[in-house]
Amino acid sequence: MIQNKMRFVIVSMLLLFFTSGLNAQNKSFELVSEKQTAKIIIDKKDAKVVEIAAEILSEDVFKVSGTKLTIEHKLANGAIIAGTIGKNKIIDRLITEKKLDVSAIQNNWESYTIQVVANLSKDVKNALVIVGSDRRGTAFGLLEISRMIGVSPWEWWADVTPDKKQELLLRIENNKYGSPSVKYRGIFLNDEDWGLQRWAALNYEPETGDIGPKTYAKVFELLLRLRANTIWPAMHSCTKPFYYYPENKQVADDYAIVVGTSHCEPMLCNINAEWDSKTMGEWRYDNNSETIKDLFSKRTKEVSKFESIYTMGMRGEHDSPMIVGEDDSDAQVKLLENVVLDQREILQNKTGKKANELPQIFIPYKEVLTYYQKDMHVPEDISLVWTDDNYGYIRQLSNPEEQKRSGGAGVYYHTSYWGRPHDYLWLNSTNPVLMWEEMNKAYEFQARDVWVLNCGDIKPHEYNIELFLDMAWDMSSFDKSAGVKSHMENWAAREFGAKNSSAITDLMYEYYRLAFQRRPEFMAWSQVEPVTKEGETELTQIHYGDEVGQRIEEYQKLINETKRIGKNITYNRKDAYYELVSYPVNGAANLNHKWLYSYKNQFAANQGRSSAELFGKKSIEAFKSIQKETAYFNNDLQNGKWNHIMSMSPRHLPVFSKPSVSVPMGDSQAELGLALESYEMELNHEVINSYADVLPVFNAYTKSEYFVDVFLKGKGDVEWKAEAKADWINISQESGSVNNSNQEQRLWVSIDWNKVPKGDNKKEAPLGHDYQLIPPSYKVNSAIDFVTVDTTITIGVSVFNPKFKELENWKGFVEDKGFISINAENFTGKTDGKQAKWETIEGLGYSGNVIAALPRTAAIQMDEKAILTNSPAVEYEFYTFNFGSADVFLQAVPAHAVNNGKGVRCAIAIDDTKPVIVDFQTFGRSDDWMQNVLRNASIQSVKQVVNKAGKHTLKVWMLDPGVMIDQILIDLGGWKNSYAFPKESKL
C-alpha cells in the first residue's frame, strides 16, 4: 500500500522562475489523498480572475485524479486559501496576526507566494496559502499548482493530456515568485485569415461566426497559464473588430488581460474595419482630424474602466504609411507630434486621469521609425516599443538617454509575417536561439516594459510562444544561450517524458538549424509584393557533395527520427506530439522535399537522365504528403477539434503549389550515363579512355570524397562495373545495373590514405592558384574504368598527398581546392578585450554555433590603435599551398545596429597587415536586406594578400559589440558557386 501511494506522489522542485527562498524546509500538503480532498477557499470580493483560476485548477485536479476540488468561501481544514492582499479577509487576518509573511511581495507587480501554514485556527491545523500582490499574481499562484501536479499550459491548446494519478501530494518550499522581468507580456493574433478565424467561425464558435468572446476566453486562459497579461487582438478585415462584440472587453477584464493594439491601430481602434472612408472621409489627420479624434474619443470613453495599453500616433490604412498633404519629412514629423498631443488630451478628458498615469506605447515601425529618427518628440512617459524587421532582427533599441525615459521601452517581435520579401505564415520557423539572442539584447538595453509576440494563429508557434513569455517572466534564467536548450529539454520532458526530452531537443534543434539556413516557405526562391513565380535555386547540385542532395538527406533523417521517437510517446501524449513535433517537422521536410526533388527533376531532365521521372514522382509525393497530413490535422485529430485551424497554403503563394514535372527528351535505346562532381553536364562518351574527365583533386589533409552518378539514359537495362586501377581507390559500389525501376545510383569515391603513395616531400609548397594545376610531383594519378558490355568510360583520379613537416601535429585549417573554409566558433586563438570578449552562441547559425562580441553595451572601437589594443580578437591559423590575392568572405547573422547611426562591424587582417573594416549593416528594405533575411546571412568580402605558401593567421577584431560571425571563407580563386560555404577544411 505504501509503495502504491508513493507511485502517485508528485514532487515539485519549483526551480524555475523568480525564486528567493525563505530558508524554510520543504513542507508537504495533501491535495488529493485517502485522508482528504482539499477545498479552494476564495473571497467573493476578490477579482473575477481569482475565481476563474480557482475553477481552472479544480478542473485540472479532476483531469489528473478524477476528483474535483470544491470552491468555497469559508475557512476549512486542509484548504487552499487563495487571495489577493487587501481583497481576502482570511489572508489579511493572517497577515495581521503575523502568521503569514508577505513582505517579499507586498506592493509588487504580479508577484505571489505559496506557503504551507500551520495552526491557522483551533479547527484548521494545516492550509496551503496562495497570496497574490494583485489579482494576476493570485491567479498565477493558483495555476502554479496546476503546473506542480503535471498539467501543461498547453493542456487544451495542444492536447497535452495529463497523466493520471490517484493521489496528489505537494512538496512546498515557501517561495516568492515575481515581479516579472517584463511588465506587460503577451501576444498579437495576426494574419488569422487561414487558420484561427476560420476555425473559430466554422468550428469552435459558430454561434458568433467569428473570433468572439468564447474563443478569446480560451486564448486568455492560455495567457494566464503562461503567466502573460497582454493581448493585441486579431485585426484583419476577415475578423470583426475586438470591440464590435461588447462581451470581449468584459471577458478580457474577467481574465485580467490587458488589451492593447498594434502599430496600425491607434488608440485601440481597428482602422481596417472601423474606419469607413465613404461615410467618415479620408484617413488623413491633416484634413480630417476632427472625425478621427471623434473615433478616438468614443473608444477611450468605452474602455475607460478597463485595463488598456493605448497605442499613440498613427499610420495609414491597412498597414501603410500615413498620408499627409506635404511630401516633406519635417511636416510629417510635426503632424505626427500633433496627433500624439491630441491623443493625450483625449485620454485625460475621457478617463479623468492624467496622461502619464495611463500605459501608452509608441511603435517606431517601418516609416514611423524614420520619423522618430528625424528628432520627433515623444513624451517621455510613453513607452518606446521597438520592432524587429519582421524577420527576427530588431532594428533599433534605446540609447543611454532614451533608457532614462520614465515610460521605458519594449519590443514588438515576429515569428510570423505577411509581406516583402516573402511571407512565412504556415510553420514556426524562427530559430528560438535567435529569438533569445534578440530579446536578451533588448533586455540588456532596458526594453523591459512591453514585450509582444506576433504569433500568427497560435497553433504552429506553441514552443516559441512559451519561450518568449518565459523569458519575459524571468530573464535571469536565460543569461546564456545554453538556457534555451535547457528550457527546451525541460519543455520536452514535461510534455513527452524525461526519457524522450534529449532526443526531441536534438531533433528540434536540427529542425531550426535547417530552417535558419532557409525557411521552408522560402524554398521556391520566389518573392511577394509583387508575387513572383518560382525562381532558380541557389543550391548547387554539382559542387561540394551536392547541396540539394544533402538537404534532402538531412530532412529525411528528421522524418525518420520523428517517427522513431513517436513510437516511444505514451498514448495520452500522441496527439500532442503530432501537433507540437510531428506535423511541423514533417511539413517542413516535405515542403523542402517537394522543391528539392523538383530541382533534381529539372537537372536530371536536362542531362537526359531517365531518373528525372523518379525525382518528379518524389516531388509530387511530398506535396501529397503535406495534403494528407494537413487533412488529418483538420479532420481527424481530436475528432475534428481543430478542423479549419491549419492551412498548408496561406495566401496560395507559388511555394505551396503542386510541382510541375519535367521529362527527358526522346525515348532512346538504353545507355549508361556518368556525371561527376563539379561537372554540370554528363561525361562525353565519344572520348574513350581519356583522362579529360577527372574528379576534383583528393586532398590528404581534408580526406576528400566525391560522387559519381551512374544513370540510365533511355529505356532498358544496362549492367556496369567500376574497376579501380589502384588499390588505394575506394568505391562505395563496384557493380550494378541501371534499368527502368532502378534508374540511378550515386557512388562515392574515397581514398585509402594508408595505401596511397606519398607525393614529393619538398619543403616548398607548390605554386599557382588553380588547384588542378599543382605540379605533378605533388600528385598521384590513377583512374576508374566504368565498363558495360560494349563501352569503357574512364575517369581520372588525382590525389594530393604530400607530407609537409610543418603540418605534423598541427591543428588548424588547410587549403582545399583553392579555398579555406572555417566555422567561426572553431577559433585557434582568442584574446579578450578590455570591455568585451568573443563568446560562442550555441544553436544559431548555419553550422549550429556562432561567435558574438559581448556584452553588447561595450564601447565601440573606432581607430586602428584602439582595435589592436582594446578590442577582443579571435585567431584562425591556416595553411595554404598557394599564394597571392585572396577574397576573405565573412558570413554574419544579419542583425542590425542597436542604436541609430552605428554599424555592425568587425575588422580582419591576415598575418600582420593593417586591419580592414567589414560592415554588415543594411538600411531600410534594400535589396541587400531582403537577400539577408531570406538566407539569414549577411556576407561581405574584403581583399587580402597571402604573401607565401605555408602557415598564416587570420585575425578578427570586434568594432561594434553584438556582431555575430557564423562562417569564414578564404578564397584563393578556387571557390565555385554554392549557397552555403563548403564544409569546414579543418586539419
From TrEMBL:
GO terms for molecular function: hydrolase activity. Residues 1-24 form the signal peptide. Residues 812-984 form the Gylcosyl hydrolase 115 C-terminal domain. InterPro entries: GH115, GH115_C, GH115_sf, Hex-like_dom2. The keyword Signal applies. Keywords: Hydrolase, Signal. This is Glycosyl hydrolase 115 family protein. It comes from Paralabilibaculum antarcticum.
